[in-house]
Amino acid sequence: MPSMVGYYRVSTSEQGRSGLGLDAQRAAVARFAEAEGFEIVAEHVEVETGKGSNALERRPQLKAALAEAKWRGKGTPVVVAKLDRLSRDVHFISGLMAQRVPFLVAELGADADPFMLHLYAALAEKERLLISQRTKAALAAAKAKGVRLGNPRLNEDRAPMLAAKKANADRFAAEVAPIIAEARAAGATTLLAIAAALNARGVRTAQGKLWRAQQVKNVVERERAWANRPIETRQ
Exposure of 144 by Cβ count < 10 A (0-12 exposed, 13-18 middle, 19+ buried)? Predict the structure, then answer.
């Protein structure tokens, strides 16, 4: 059975302490290993941001995963649950490829070659840029209307960003609400059924990910037009 090295990362110390996201990543990699016939011989967990040109220098566990894979030899890959657990930066991904250690992304499957990883990284980088632009535009629009953004007790830099993030979330909820309405009309009456319908149609969340029941619930609750039309909460 071929070997593989698992690598899991969360972005903040709070997430690291709570385990938020780590269990899901570990489960996804475990499912991938079982489906593809790999044995997970080592696991490395990182609590660090993925941003910055020196990101690899600030991620000792990723370095350790690379070293482990090289030591194992025979094309032992480093496997992550999602590409953004490595980075959304194309140059960073290219630098990892130069390490001559194969990387596999459970979400993309075992057939995703380096060219595909570069392509997905480029798309993720573009998405990050668009999100930043939308956030800045929402903030500028709010300021132009004279809106006092955020809680005065919050850090002055954080409050406008939270307000802009909420504006983006509200706008996305309004955009996806008609699609949810169509799914309900077609017979999807539970949160889980609606999530499955959205995924089947190729609709992604605001972060470009697959839908889950809780995410559907969040969107429905944001869309005021649905306020008097309760949805079944069973999964």
Answer: exposed
User: CA 77, CA 68: separation in Å to the nearest integer?
Assistant: 10
At 100, list the tokens: 């001559």
Confirm if 185 and 166 have CB atoms less than 8 A apart: no
Nearest Cα neighbor of 90 from 127, 58, 59 is 127
CA–CA separation, 179 and 27 (whole Å): 30
* Predicted confidence band of residue 37 (pLDDT cuts 50, 70, 90): very high
Listed as own residue / partner, the contacts of 200-208 with beta carbons closer than 8 Å and 24 or more positions apart are 203/176, 203/179, 206/168, 206/169, 206/172, 208/124, 208/127
Is 47 within 8 Å of 19 (Cβ atoms)? no
Give the contacts of 131 (CB within 8 A, at least 6 positions apart). Answer: 168
Rounded to 10°, the helix 158-185/114-144 angle is 110
Number of helices and strands in the chain (H, E)? 8, 4
**Burial bucket for residue 201 (CB in 10 Å: 0-12, 13-18, 19+):** exposed
**CA 222 to centroid of chain Cα atoms:** 21
Q: What is the mean pLDDT of the chain?
A: 78
pTM of the model: 0.53
